[in-house]
């Protein structure tokens, strides 16, 4: 059993070390692949009759993009998702693309995806401690509810008040763009943190700043 565990841990280390050492073209190919995964999850869609923002599976992929792609490249993968989608690749919600999505009520969330993936990729590659379940869950909840929600709600409010011609209060914006999604987003963050805990190595592969001291205060 100990030998199997050691082999699994070595495999996780090898995969993440390999990911860091890839050439730029190969990293770009992986980033496009991760963007495609987010595009597929965008098709898991549940419209809300009182809101222009649907419930989707996108954020689950976004949270994992930073962990799997790492510093910078997680953000690049979501920038490619946004940029190629605007250019016409039909991987936004409803198998659609175009600038209207970025300029519409959900565009702020798409921009927030980039910030969230950059944030999670940075911590995953910089700190071994961040790869525990508790730490990763905290980071993912921050990324989701601050880095995604703030630009998302800001643009939703602008769109409702300026483009659609509706005067909507802050409570109305929260009702359309935040409150219905909280339970689902917490669930997705818990699942993503569990996956991140399982697939990330608990040893340094990229010169992490806490590589010599993290085990003294590691979390589960």
Question: What's the tally of helices?
Answer: 9
| Helical coverage, percent range | 55-70%
Just give the CATH class: Mainly Alpha
What shape does the CA trace take?
Answer: elongated
Helix and strand run: HHEEHHHHHHH
- Could you report the average pLDDT, rounded to the nearest whole number? 91
Largest sheet: 2 strands, antiparallel
Radius of gyration: 18 Å
- Kindly state the number of beta strands: 2
What would you note in describing this structure?
This protein has 220 residues and is mostly helical. The chain has a single domain, classed as Arp2/3 complex 21 kDa subunit ARPC3 (Orthogonal Bundle), CATH 1.10.1760.20. The chain contains nine helices and two strands; from the N terminus they run H-H-E-E-H-H-H-H-H-H-H. A two-stranded antiparallel sheet has the order 1-2. Helix 6 runs antiparallel to helix 7. It is elongated. It starts with a helix and ends in a 21-residue tail after the last helix.
What is the structure about, briefly put?
The chain is mainly α. The protein has helices at about 1-20, 25-40, 60-70, 75-85, 100-105, 105-125, 135-165, 170-175, 180-200, and strands at about 45, 55.
Core attributes:
9 helices, single chain, 220 residues, two-stranded antiparallel sheet, mainly alpha, 2 strands, elongated, Arp2/3 complex 21 kDa subunit ARPC3
Task: Itemize the secondary structure elements and their pairings.
Layout: H1 2-21, H2 24-41, E1 45-46, E2 55-56, H3 58-69, H4 73-87, H5 99-103, H6 107-126, H7 133-163, H8 170-177, H9 182-199
